[in-house]
Amino acid sequence: MNKNNYFDAGECDVAVVGAGHAGCEAALACARMGFKTIIFAINLDSVGNMPCNPSIGGTSKGQLVREIDALGGSMGKIADKTTLQSKILNKAKGPAVYSLRAQIDRRRYQEEMKHELELQKNLEVKQGEIIDILTEDGETIPHVTGVVTHTGATYKCKSVILCTGTYLKGRVIIGDVSYSSGPDGLFPANSLSPRLKELGFSLIRFKTGTPARIRREGIDFSQMEIQYGDDVIEPFSAETDKVEIDQMPCYLTHTTAETHEIIRKNIHRSPMFNGSIEGVGPRYCPSIEDKVMRFADKERHQAFVEPMGRNTEEMYLQGMSSSLPEDVQIQFIRSIKGLSDVVIMRPAYAIEYDAIDAQQLKLSLESRIVDNLFFAGQINGSSGYEEAAAQGIVAGINAALKLQGREPMIIDRSEGYTGVLIDDLVTMGTNEPYRMMTSRAEYRLILRHDNAEERLLEKGYKVGLISEERYQKFLKKQENIKNERERLESTYISHPKMINGYLEEKGSTPLKSSASLADLLRRPELMYSDIKEIEKLAGIDNPCEVSKEVGDELEILVKYEGYIKRQEQQINQFRKMEKKILPEDFDYKQINTLSLEAREKLNKIKPASIGQASRISGVSPADITALLVYFKEV
Amino acid sequence: MNNFSDTIAAISTAPGSSGVGIIRISGEDAFTISDKLFCRNKEAFLHICDKYFSDGESGDFPSMNDVSSMNNHEIRHGYIYDFVKNTDEKGKVGVSVDFIDECLLSKMPAPYSYTGENVAEINCHGSFAVLSRVLSAVIKSGARPAEPGEFTKRAFLNGKLDLAKAEAVMDIINSKTEQSRRAAVSQLEGRLSKQIEGIRSSLIGCLSEIDVSIDYPEYEMDGITGDHSMQIMIDAEKSLKRLSETYYRGRLIKEGINLVLSGCPNAGKSSLMNVLSGYNRAIVTDIPGTTRDVIEEFIQIDGISVTVTDTAGLRDTDDIVEKIGVDKAIDRISDAELVIYIADADSLAEKSVLDEHISFLDSGRTIVIINKVDVASKENIDFLKEFFKDFCTVEMSMKTEKGVENLYQIIKDKFSLGEIYNNSENILTNERHKALVDSALNHLDKAKESYEKNMPLDCISYDIWLCAEKLGEITGKSVSEDVVNDIFSRFCVGK
Q1: Mutate to test the interface with A, among B462, B473, B475, B485 (most CBs of A within 10 A)
Q2: According to CATH, what is the number of the domain A3-207+353-463?
Q3: How many helices and strands, by DSSP H and E, does chain B display?
Q4: pLDDT reported for residue A612
Q5: What ipTM was predicted for this assembly?
Q6: Residues 53-112 of B with CB under 8 A from A
Q7: Is the pTM of this model over 0.80?
Q8: For chain B, what is the largest distance between any 2 Cα atoms, rounded to a whole number of angstroms?
Q9: Which CATH number fits domain A579-630: 3.40.920.10, 1.10.150.570, 3.10.180.10, 2.30.30.40?
């Protein structure tokens, strides 16, 4: 587009580019914090789209959704409204890793999210591809002044948040066929990449993929294992009272020897294997051909059949992503147990796209080379709806805080998976699309899904995204937990005989002498609900009534007290290093006691603290000592 | 921050006489300082000196600038000189040139040197007298004596060495003997890192098995059981315990054994000292109480350095000086790794004296020598053997050196020195490493306890994680990245 054709279309405070999961949270946060915001989508029917799996949450991702909720975001609330099935995962594996996952009605989610945007005060929702970011030179680095759509409409603005997902120079690959495209057959965004390069961003090429969608009719569910949700649904959002729905099941089936044979015979036609895909794909999302070739001795692989919505016959085939040609896909899918007569509605495809090197960002997600330009979601090298949304709300909050002249809100690694996610991306960068995993969080005993509010609600309240009412409710809950915990510690069973029968029934050793209720709760086999029963049997008067969620949290706090305490001590150590602040504009070349590699890396990343510096790969403990010596922190 | 602008110097070869010794000078002024004490050609230098003195000694002492004019990384032959004050027969004070030694000087400019600074090294003759004279000339010319380990510290701060290497180098510097040098060198080459990395990677494997089942709960994992994790923990614990136990022996190698000689006055302690050290060091007389203070000698037994302390004879005394000596002796005995108590079989001490002495001694770390068996009666020898029956006893004669070999053997056995000498296993010698290994063991213990108490997986993995992290602090690796990598290389998971 010729710059002469640009025309003045209006102005706003913040322009959000892209209306996926990152863009929606970013725009909502800015608008709710009082800034006039415009959110742009290439197609308004793609707002909050889930081009891959129709589910939200899962291990560590469920925690992210709870964190977004505690900061005042919308993903959790809308997921609760559109749930098809819900489950708590890892119930037997320990409190730190309980995670909520819900199957979502994809179309309903989009509808609800779009409506949420439309109803939001201060927020305009517009269809348009952003092709240019306008900037002006500042004292040291340029700052943004506006954005331009493909029709030349120019919007002046003070801040821009880029949430372009997989649209930048998107290219879809299905076997030998490949074409320029965004996800789900939407238009790609081809003009923004060159502009980002011009501004000095280094672009990387990533690849991701999605499996085929198949038609419900033609699936033989009798050959599959049916998987139901939990009887009682626990909502994502603290603001959702309850979710009462008729849940839809998922199904588990397996590949067969024939499936593997078909894939092996056709592997030469895979663009991943013959080299025509240049983008780096994620290891955690291997295509079925990858699984078959790399794990040759495995006799079968799992495939999950999941509903896409209530008003559709389309089913998602989890575990079977592929970039093999469609004719091969049809063959191997029909060789899967129970799918012999199935019809493919949309073939699996791989998609390549541009992302930036997130090491060019600050922990606030603002870029270090253009002022007031923020980045969130897949453009930063992450993958996943929840990862995107978490970055979105952080970028939105920080864009607004900067316009208010306030300090950025940084969530550190001990405060949330959100903090781990952003710190990993910004400090270490990533060479594949980054998925959140509990293994990445060193403080996961503290980053639980039951305590997201304790960790982050205060922050959300301070920036103005949490209502007074919710905040007061939270304070009340904290008080209840504290009081009830004290009561459990100080209430003793003085006549064990009255309860020993119950203990034996539960497979718990009978009491010989008196014990506190907390002592009993520490026993692995006794739950908080058992304590309630024991109280009744022991004739303990007036036990204060607490909600189920308070009970659940108490159970964790009491049962795992020792572990939690130790982790808290670790966190205190960690915070000491995070509090040693490094200057923002410092040339590390002048510290000649640093190794050359460290000087280079520190100059590239400009860490905010000694703690962050210590996580940069290539910065050794010796370099940290040298930094401490230089800044006289020893 | 330390003052790095000054130039430091030290004798950088081990003390003790050897053929060649090295003086190292490091810092910005290393070359200008060297210019003040080095010349290539004696005659040429003397010539300009004569001129200088005859011209009335105005300005700085003359210099040939033979170091400044050298190429980088060149080695030059020449002489180290010093200007010394002297008084002639008439009592007139003058200055003259004194050539200390012939030497080789090498020039290594920053940053291409060990410390990353300008470094000059003077290779001269190795006698302590020569080395200390050269060093004092260097100090006089403007360098400051280096503190122990300061070269390595500078190398470290200039990014020339990583922490583990710097620590290993410090150990080399501090090591007294050949064998400990070998232990330090092999650590430097990473044998210890390799072993620790092996243990650590088995724990990472264990963590990734736990974590993959947590992060991908919907996927079936073959062969992942708690028992398997437990087995890995038990194996790791075994290896780490073994490693931790080597620290005691490692420390012996590095720091040597502290051996104390004690016994009644004139029982033959000083003679034994002389036998052990091979020459007359202590004053040996027939007058009881000759050794009034403690005397130390370093000897080597199979490459292990042994500090032998000769103490005053243990006896009740009114002599104040000697009394102090006796009190000191008792202190030394309680600190020693090994005590050799010498009993005179020829003239037996009174039973009450022996009773008192035996109360100071700990049979676990004491060898009792029954001395003078060449002249003593069998009755006396048998009495002593019976009296010290809980102790390891050796019959000896200092005069005939009977039993010396036997004594060496017993000392070696006592500290499994033969084992250390022959064994190529890794030995922990560094205190930081030892502390990390112990802390790793502590976490492993907690993880096992969690497992036995039926705690959930995330509680068990918590301590395995910390254990791996502690080991990673030795080898410099981070756990989380390694677990994620391991998960993806071993398990077939994902949509």
Answers
A1: B462
A2: 3.50.50.60
A3: 17, 13
A4: 94
A5: 0.84
A6: 111
A7: no
A8: 103
A9: 1.10.150.570
